[in-house]
Structures are given as structure tokens and as C-alpha cells.
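pinned: reference chain
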Amino acid sequence: MELIDIRVSDLADGMITVEFNGEGGEAASVTMVAHTNLERAAAILRARQVLVQLTAFGDYKDDNPPAEADVQIDDTSSVQDVSNTLPLRPFASSDL
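pinned: its C-alpha cells
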């Protein structure tokens, strides 16, 4: 996803949401508990840390099949989950 916009919500009911918007309508959002209204840069950094933790430690498995975009069918017609093989670009403080 090529990032084109980041939106940070105001504090509401003790929660703040950071939405990362990409080309083609792709989006990822993180809703976090916040006791005070975080500054924009602090909220974005915290949301990115949550996403990094999910990708680094996200070995959660459930009974749902992988999303259609995360599968490919090999030459034996079996479905392979490719969501764990997608490349991730590390972010730097300059990305804020």
C-alpha cells in the first residue's frame, strides 16, 4: 500500500483512531485507548508501533480462511496463504 494520507481522530469516549489511507482506496486503521487527546505525531507513532507489533508477533490463527487477496492457487489447485510472505517496508521517523 502506497501511503497517501493519514487521518487522526479527536479523542472520543477514551479512544483515538489513526487511519492510514493508500492509493486505490486501501486503508488501515488503528483505534487505541487514550486518556488524553494525543498530539498528531504521537498518535501516528503509537499506531505504527501497534501495526509493527501485529506483523512481528501476529501469529494469531482462527477458523476463518485467508482473505481472497491473501491467497493464491498453485498448480495442484490447492490454496496457499501468502499473507505472511508479503514484503514490509520499515518506516523511519522521517515518515512522520
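why pinned: The CA atoms of residues 15 and 33 lie 5 Å apart. DSSP finds one helix and five strands in the chain.
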